[in-house]
Structure to design on (111 residues):
């Protein structure tokens, strides 16, 4: 049985959907795909990129480190190659805290 965090997940996401999730341009997603070897979208018959859930999660981590932490591409590559599990766990905690904060703000606004 799934839990609430197992929301309907698609098998593949288009580059437009990924860019929208990240609040970035598709060109940034394409650039990060070329820079980071952990991002390996499949291509359909038309040649369109199809990102897996894992690709999307890795892109979210890259986006966080680049945009919110202000790291450079080289810095992100180094950090992710040295200790990828630590980076992933830290990002998961931060995402959970953001969701909790959002929920608390909604509760406060409804009081």
């Amino acid at each position: 049985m799934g839990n609430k965090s197992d929301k309907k997940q698609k098998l593949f996401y288009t580059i437009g959907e990924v860019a929208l999730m990240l609040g970035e341009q598709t060109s940034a997603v394409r650039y990060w795909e070329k820079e980071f070897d952990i991002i390996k979208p499949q291509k359909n018959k038309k040649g369109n990129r199809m990102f897996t859930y894992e690709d999307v999660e890795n892109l979210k981590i890259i986006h966080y480190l680049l945009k919110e932490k202000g790291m450079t591409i080289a810095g992100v590559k180094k950090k992710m190659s040295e200790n990828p599990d630590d980076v992933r766990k830290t990002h998961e905690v931060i995402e959970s805290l953001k969701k909790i904060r959002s929920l608390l703000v909604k509760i406060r606004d409804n009081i």
Summary: The helical segments are 15-22, 26-35, 53-68, 73-82, 84-110. Strands lie at 13-14, 42-43, 49-51.
